[in-house]
Amino acid sequence: MPWKKIIYIFLIFIFGGVSALCGAAVGGVVVYQYVRQEIVSLQTATAQSAIEVVPAANTTQNLAVNTTDVETAITSAVQNVGPAVVTVVGTIPGQQTFFGYTGDSTSSGSGVFISADGYILTNNHVIDGAQQLQVIFADGKQQDATLVGTDQYSDLAVLKIPASAPAIAKLGDSDALNPGETVIAIGSPLGDFKNTVTVGVISATGRSIDTGSGYSIDSLIQTDAAINQGNSGGPLVNLAGEVVAINTLIIRSSGSGTVAEGLGFAIPINTARFVSEQIIQKGFVSHPYLGINWQPVTPRVAAIYRLPVQYGAYITDVARSSPASQAGLQVGDIITGIDSTTLDDAHAYINTLFQYSTGDTVTLTINRNGKQVEVQVTLGESGS
């Protein structure tokens, strides 16, 4: 073989090997870069995953902190309002019966100081019929109280002690309440367990409850905070330590006998504030006055007495010189409407009348001896 050919083959072998080695090296670099990139990507993804897990842990921690905050707010609210809450005890004189004298009895409920000079807000039904009143402070001290005035239609009353109040509750804004908001009831259930604290939520607002006396109490606040007999007149408090309502009644069962729990109702503090201010200033609450005694007409009453209408107000007496007398209303007339509102199960006579003010002139729709008559009346003013 010629030496040139041998050298040529040798060179091909050498350069071919080098090329292979270089190819391997280049391939190795490429693989290395690719693997390194994947490792970095994996580390980044892992780091991001770790970061995403952190908020879940923090959320649990925040929930624990928020729970603690709520518990602290409840404790603080009770400490602020509790000293202003009182137990109200009324002495009801005995009555003469066929079997003799029954002896005195007592009623009890709750109340709350709303001014430094000793005014106490409570329910009308707590002190109804009582001739002597006492209040028991949160520290156990007792003080005689006098009745300033009442309003049976809102079920509110104002009492006063002759001394300064030991503490005053701050009044809030009941219009700002929302369902689900935490509230606290403070009162004296059964009259024995003074300053008992229960916690619940605002279940609903704007409730209406029929009193069974021909009118309903409107715009009530519903709560599931435990309320028992004796809690009436006590405050319903928000987490800011403000009184937002006055506890007034509970419903335990329906007409069908179904047992219910957690159905408590309270009078909005905006209503209570308005009523109490009038009682303190005038001794009564100003209501539009017609000057009649009346009985509510319902389908059951109408069926029993064969009345010509299903709903209305049956006039049993007309006061002399009253707006009703001057307008010519008579005993036996049945008021079935006021202006454009027809009286029915959703529009009671008193609730409809109280939408007007003293001095307003209204048109009454009357059923007189089976005939419909319209009468104009200018409303006067009278306390409840």
* Mean pLDDT reading: 83
Q: Report strand %.
A: 35-45%
DSSP helical segment count: 6
CATH topology of the largest domain: Thrombin, subunit H
Query: Radius of gyration over alpha carbons?
Result: 39 Å
The end-to-end distance, rounded to whole angstroms, is: 138 Å
Domain module tally: 3
Instruction: Please list the strands of the largest sheet in the order they lie side by side.
Output: 1-4-5-8-7-6
Would you identify the CATH architecture of the largest domain? Beta Barrel
Spell the H/E element sequence: HEEEEEHEEEEEEEEEEHEEHEHEEHEEE
Secondary structure: helix percent: 25-40%
Number of strands: 23
Give an account of the 3D structure.
There is one protein chain. By secondary structure, the chain is an alpha+beta fold. The protein has three domains: 82-160, Beta Barrel (Thrombin, subunit H); 174-282, Thrombin, subunit H (Beta Barrel), CATH 2.40.10.10; 287-382, Pdz3 Domain (Roll), CATH 2.30.42. Helices cover 29% and strands 35% of the residues. It contains six helices and 23 strands. It has helices at 3-81, 124-127, 269-282, 299-305, 323-326, 349-353, and strands spanning 85-92, 96-97, 100-101, 105-113, 119-122, 132-136, 142-151, 156-160, 170-171, 182-187, 196-210, 216-223, 235-238, 242-250, 264-268, 287-289, 292-297, 312-318, 334-338, 341-342, 361-368, 371-378, 380-382. Strands 1-4-5-8-7-6 form a six-stranded antiparallel β-barrel. A six-stranded antiparallel barrel has the order 10-11-12-15-14-13. Strands 17, 18, 19, 20, 21 and 22 form a six-stranded antiparallel beta sheet that branches. Strand 11 (196-210) and strand 12 form a beta hairpin. The longest helix is centred in the first third of the chain and has 79 residues, at 3-81. It starts with a helix and ends with a strand. Residues 3-65 have low confidence and may be disordered.
